[in-house]
Structures are given as structure tokens and as C-alpha cells.
Design the sequence.
DNA sequence: CGAGCGATTGAAAAGACTCAACCACCGTGG
DNA sequence: CCACGGTGGTTGAGTCTTTTCAATCGCTCG
């Protein structure tokens, strides 16, 4: 269970680091980060940063989930990404020199470390491995978003929901998918009511089942077929 | 007028370089590029690279326009970006170590230079300015695509068309927008017929006019209003 | 001059959205 | 312990946008 404290999490012992961009860092650099970062416990729904705000550093998720989203004119959120343990959030704006183009909020209680802009940029400058990792990461995200755009443009809501459930199932791993219907709709890019109706169809067809608000994927293969590879 | 030859274009004299990522390069590096790059004339519609292909270098547009796109299951293209003079195309895949996730074709006859992967990565490694430029560029594109996703998800086709026309008007500058209806539809993310009908509406309302297939924007302010800021 | 492709129009159908009402669960406070 | 209020989830009905399919038009190039 997650500890509700602001206790310092030592990078060296951070289990999430294994899957992280920071995994390539050596003892020395790691210690530098360790000494300059701060760790915080976030309640569910708290903001890490807001759209238009000025970036002051990056957030490293030790444990928990974070939604990255942007708001449309009428205030409707579009969720761009759901980040989980080991991911670094908010480093895009470190390089662009612009305000955040997206916002980020916790989706559940989380332990998250903060590394200041200066420290982070310093690391990137002096550590070629990290630098290459960042370039690779940015590139991958770019590819992801291109396919996201394509899916939005060409797939039906039903197909997008199937694809979204597969992605989320991966992110939530052992756990059931745990998002509000509204967040899920904002990830798929549809109205909440439409989402609920389609989810019901999926339940009727045995692809998923629900535990109150949590969603359990029962038939990945089926969803893959529905999503139209 | 554009010269139909494969004549070498000297980087130092390249007018497009002013707006380019490469603009920060010094004489020495510039000469290195100059000696190793190759310049080609492309006819309209020729591919620079295809989805799934292995990246072997980057393309620098001296003159012309290039569409960057990805194909859906039924073969429908989604145009992600229209690149013009001064832009470098295909550098994302240089860093990801993966095959191209998108394809690129010329939209009109173009003069385009090619820099091999090794030379390019070498430059990036040794030139901090270029490196930072790349990071900034990748970050900006990431932000662009986030807003692209949001628009796809939340805006009507009419609003997206208005927005697309504004973007294209910017890209085409002095010239009229010159895209097939199908390409335009694939950029907006709609069916060709729908695009034509909406374009007709815009004409009736005096926002644009057409010269055969070319589109002239008459009322930017109006389009901005239509696009729903 | 004819072929062919891109552009355009029409009509019908489908998908998705909106609005409105209702339900169910949860925590609060009396 | 229970009534209450609130939020999030669900359902129904009607509407509208957008798509699809089919047919026609009109350049442009051999």
C-alpha cells in the first residue's frame, strides 16, 4: 500500500526507476538528483501543473497515475496520456521555453518526486545517455501522437474505445482500470453518455466486466479485433 | 521558378536555411554538411520515405512542399503535417531507432537535400546549439500534436476546416493553397465529399474563393471566428 | 476527340451528441 | 440510525452532423 507521507524516496532504491528514463544514470548523477529533488505525496485529483503555467521542473512518478490533458473551449478535457510509475511528466516544456501546453493531475493518490529545471537541464547537458534517452522518448511520443491523431480522425468511437481499453489495461497492469466514466470518455474523445452505452455493449458481448466503476478486461483478443488493428 | 536539376545547393547560400534548424550552424559544420549531403529535384507526388521503412538520413527542404502522413487500415491517409522550405523532415526516426511511423511525399515539385544518418547524428553530437534546437523542435511538435488531437476530438469538421485553412494559408504564404480536395480532406480528417460541401459554404459566405483547385483565403478573421479560437 | 481522374452533387443512412430525467451510491449531519 | 444532498453513473428520445454510395460533371492529357 501507498504511504501517505512526504518521506524522501532514495533514487537508488526506487523500484520505478527500472522502467524509467533515469535508469541509465550512474551512482554519481543519481546522488546529485537525490540530493536536489523533493518527494511529495499527492492526493487523488491534485494538479502537478496547469495549462499555460510556467514550467519549473519535471515530475517523476514513483507510485500512482497521472493524467496529462488539455482543455477545449467549452472546458472539456482531452486526455492525451495516462502516465504511471517510472514515467517522467512535464519535461517537454523544459526544452521548448514555452508555458505548459497541457495540464497534469493525479488520478489516484501518488508519490511523486520533483526535480528542478536547472538540475534537470544540467543532467541532460552532462549525461549523454540521458540525453539520448530523452531524444528517443520524445521521438516515440511523437510517433504515438501521430497514430493518436490518425485514430481520432479515422476510427469510430467504438473502435477507439476498444483501443483505449487495451492501452489502459496495459497501464493498470495487475489492477482493474480505474477511471471515472468522464475521464474515460475524455480519453477516447467522446461524450460520457456514448461511452457508457458502448461500454455496456462490450459488457453484453463479454469483452469486459465492471466492478462498480472499475473495468476488468476479459477478452484482449476480442478487443484487438474490435479496435481494428 | 524552381530549377529542375540535381545541381548541388550550397548550404551557405541556401535561403531556406534562415528559418531552419540548421541556421545556427557555423561555417565549419556547414561545410561538413555541404560536402556530404546530396541534393535532388523531386517531381510532384514522389515519396521521400514510406511508413515502416528504415531511416537512412534526414531531408532538408530547399524549395517545395512535403506532406507527412500515415495510412489507416482501409488505406485512407491522415496528413499530420505539411512541411515547406527550410524544414527538416524525417529526423524523428533518427533518434527512436525504429522504422518510420509516417510517410512523406512531395506535394509539388521540390528541391530537397539529403543528409545521411551518420553525418546528421554526428552533427547533433558535436553541436550543442543544433542539439538544443532539435530538442526545442521536438517539444514544439509534441505540443502541436497534442492540440491536433484535441481538435480532432472536440471540434466539428467545419471548425477543423477553418483551422486547417488558416494553417495552410500560413504555409503557402504568398501563394494560394494548392492541395487536392482529397489531401485537404485527409488533413482535416473528413470525407472528401464533406470537405467539398463545407468549402462551398465557406465560399458562399465569402471566407474563401477558389481558382480551379487552388484556394484563396479572403477573410482570415472570419475563419478564426469559425474555427473557435 | 475520348479516356480518365478529380471534383461535385444528391439522397439516404448511420453514428454520435444533446438534453432531460432518473438511479445508485456515499458520506454527512441531525 | 436514518434522512438528506450531492456526485457520478445510466437510460431514453430526438436531432443533427457526417458518412456512404451512386451518379454526374468537367478538366487535362494523350
Sequence:
Amino acid at each position: 500500500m501507498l504511504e501517505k507521507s512526504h518521506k524522501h524516496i532514495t533514487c537508488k532504491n526506487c523500484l520505478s526507476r527500472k522502467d524509467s528514463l533515469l535508469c541509465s544514470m550512474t551512482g554519481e548523477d543519481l546522488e546529485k538528483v537525490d540530493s536536489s529533488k523533493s518527494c511529495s505525496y499527492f492526493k487523488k485529483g491534485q494538479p502537478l501543473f496547469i495549462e499555460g503555467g510556467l514550467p519549473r521542473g519535471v515530475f517523476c512518478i514513483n507510485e500512482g497515475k497521472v493524467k496529462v490533458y488539455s482543455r477545449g473551449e467549452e472546458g472539456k478535457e482531452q486526455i492525451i496520456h495516462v502516465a504511471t510509475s517510472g514515467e517522467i511528466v512535464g519535461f517537454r516544456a523544459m526544452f521548448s521555453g514555452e508555458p505548459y501546453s497541457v495540464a497534469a493531475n493525479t488520478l489516484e493518490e501518488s508519490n511523486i518526486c520533483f526535480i528542478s529545471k536547472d538540475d534537470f537541464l544540467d543532467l541532460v547537458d552532462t549525461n549523454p545517455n540521458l540525453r539520448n534517452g530523452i531524444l528517443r522518448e520524445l521521438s516515440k511520443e511523437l510517433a504515438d501522437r501521430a497514430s493518436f491523431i490518425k485514430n481520432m480522425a479515422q476510427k469510430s468511437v467504438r473502435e477507439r474505445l476498444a483501443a483505449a481499453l487495451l492501452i489502459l489495461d496495459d497501464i493498470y497492469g495487475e489492477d482493474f482500470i480505474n477511471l471515472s466514466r468522464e475521464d474515460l470518455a475524455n480519453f477516447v474523445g467522446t461524450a460520457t453518455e456514448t461511452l457508457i452505452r458502448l461500454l455496456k455493449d462490450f459488457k453484453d458481448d463479454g469483452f469486459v466486466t465492471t466492478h462498480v466503476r472499475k473495468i476488468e478486461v476479459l477478452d484482449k483478443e476480442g478487443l484487438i479485433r474490435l479496435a481494428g488493428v
Remarks:
- Chain B touches chain A through 41 residues (CB under 8 Å).
